[in-house]
Every structure is written in C-alpha cells, then in structure tokens.
Amino acid sequence: MSSNLSAPHFHNEQAAYAYVEARIWPEGPVCPHCGGVERISKMQGKSTRIGAYKCYQCRKPFTVKIGTIFEASHVPMHMWLQAMYLIAGSKKGISSNQLHRILGVTLKTAWFMSHRIREAMKSGDTGFFGEGGTMVEVDETFIGQNPAKPFEARERMGGRKTSPNFRNKIAVVALIDRATGRSKAVVVDNLTAAEVGSLVTATVHSDAILMTDQARIYRPIGPAFAGHEVVNHGAEEYVRKGASHIHTNTIEGYFSIFKRGMKGVYQHCQKKHLHRYLAEFDFRYTNRVALGCNDEDRAERLLAGVIGKRLTYQTAREA
Predict the structure, then answer these.
(1) φ, ψ (nearest 5 deg) of residue 62
(2) Fewer CB near the last or first residue (10 Å), C or N of the chain?
(3) Is residue 217 a contact partner of residue 234, using CB atoms and an 8 Å limit?
C-alpha cells in the first residue's frame, strides 16, 4: 500500500503541471490573454520553462499559473500541491510554521502560500441555505481580541485581572444547512439584530426553518422564514424534550472544531485576516468525510477553486 503523497505530481514538476493542466484545462490549453483555444502550441527548447505555451493568435506566452493563486509564484508547482493537500486534509488546520518546516520554504513564503490557498477555499456557491423547507442552524461565537474595542481589565480582589468578556472580542456568526451539510461563517462588526438579520436573510431561503438559541438578535428575523425554533440554553435546554431535532448541536460542533484550530494550531489571528481562516474551516466542513469527501477528493475540489483568485502579498498583508 502506498501513501497518497507518493503520487508523481507531488514530487515531479512536469507531472505536477500535467496534473494541474488536466483539471484547469480539461478540454486543452486556453490562452489567458485573448481566450483563444486554437493555434496554441507547447514551447520547446532546453531553456524553456516547464509548462510554457505560446498562443499564435495574440503571440503571447503563458502557463497554467496565470489567472490563478499560483501566478507570479516562484514556488515549484509540486510543492504547491503538497501544501494544498496538507491544508485540505488537516481537520483543524496546519500552521505556517509547520508548512515552513515540512516544505523547506521560508516562513514568509509558507504564510503567503497558506493565505493564497485559503483564498482558493472561498466558496463560489450562491445558492440559498434551507431551500425546500429544510432546517438551518444559526449561532454566534466570539474569538480573539477586537482591535476596535480594546479590553480594559477590571481589577479583582488581590489585584488579579478578569479575563476579557465577549464585548472585547471578535464576533463571528455561522450558519449550517442541515440537509446539505454546508456551512458559512462571517465576521460581523456589530452583533445587532439589523446586521445579523441582513446576513441571515441574504443567505437563508424564506422557506427554511430557522433554528437558533434564545438570543434576542434572532427574534426580529424569525417571521421572515417558514418557521423559527428556539432552544433556551439559559435554562439548560439543549435538545427539546420530545422533539430531538430541535437543537443547535450541529453548529456547536462546527464552532468546537473552529476554536480548537484557531487556539491550538493558529493561536493568533488578526481580525483583518479572520475571514480567510473562516473560509478554510467552511471549506473543510462542507467537504468532510461524513458527506462522502475524503482527503484526496477535498484536495481535488480545492484545486478547482484556484482560478480567478490571485492574491498579491501586499493585499494579503493588508486584509
């Protein structure tokens, strides 16, 4: 039995290009400059870089990297594929430090590669959650330190300081469609009925049944849907007695994985970068084993998302 990482495209640069080309250009090379598909030939010669083509319609050279997260990267393609497989297959993520040690690239390069891969993990699915009247769980959690709301420690007896409360943390609202298993998590600036309501109504179909806890922010949006079920966590109700489907345990499980990854693997994340980490956890959760997607399938789906998502280093640093 051989390891999944023994595949040729993880070690051989020509095999890596062929692997990526077969998935990005399933019907043959397409010129990213003019869109041409005819009069394209592979460039030959000892000094020609691997994977180079020339379009004789616009007379410009190109590779499969152009227009993808790989564009302008000097990292070999086979190492990109290794990094993608490792990130896609790590349930709670893999740190830039770990990638730096495994791949032998600099820490700066590993960090940038990680963010480019997270960019590819962003979902392009615009379909509503809960279509057909299925149940959609919605909940909020708090993580990290919100730079807009610095924590002012309150003194306890003996000079000890209290830990930050939720008002000083970054708020995240997540939704899970029970029927499809899809998840979507978003950073919110203000945890208000208006902001959360706008997010939920833009994501969830009006035929859906909303499933939340007793938080007041969900009360105004409940009537916009076919139903709104509530469990009262304050009264230690976690599953409705006599109605085992009335609960928010699915989304609590999602938050458990997310927080263990953020605290145990990544440890620190600025608010401006959090949206990409959420895309990473959403991608793995939506493409998990329970939904019939193994590590190899997940890496394939990730590769399908690299098109049109180029991310420059400056943009990655700023947001």
Answers:
(1) -165, 165
(2) N
(3) no
Query: Above 90 in pLDDT, residue 146?
Result: no
Residues 232, 213: contact at Cβ < 8 Å?
Answer: yes
Query: What's this model's pTM, rounded to 2 decimal places?
Result: 0.91
d(CA 181, CA 23): 25
CA distance 174 to 199: 10
Q: What is the pLDDT of residues 16-32, one digit of tens each?
A: 999 999 999 999 999 99
Q: What is the pLDDT of residues 178-209, one digit of tens each?
A: 999 999 999 999 999 999 999 999 999 999 99
Residue type, 278: L
Taking only the tens place, the pLDDT of each residue in 270-287 is 999 999 999 999 999 999
CA–CA gap between residue 210 and residue 205 (Å, rounded): 10
Please state which CATH number belongs to domain 135-286: 3.30.420.10
Of the candidates 87, 26, 3, 130, the one whose C-alpha atom is nearest the C-alpha of residue 287 is 87
Which of 283, 281, 294, 293 is closest to 255 using CA atoms? 281
Listed by start position, the domains of the chain span 135-286
Identify the CA nearest to 167 among candidates 156, 157, 152, 186.
152
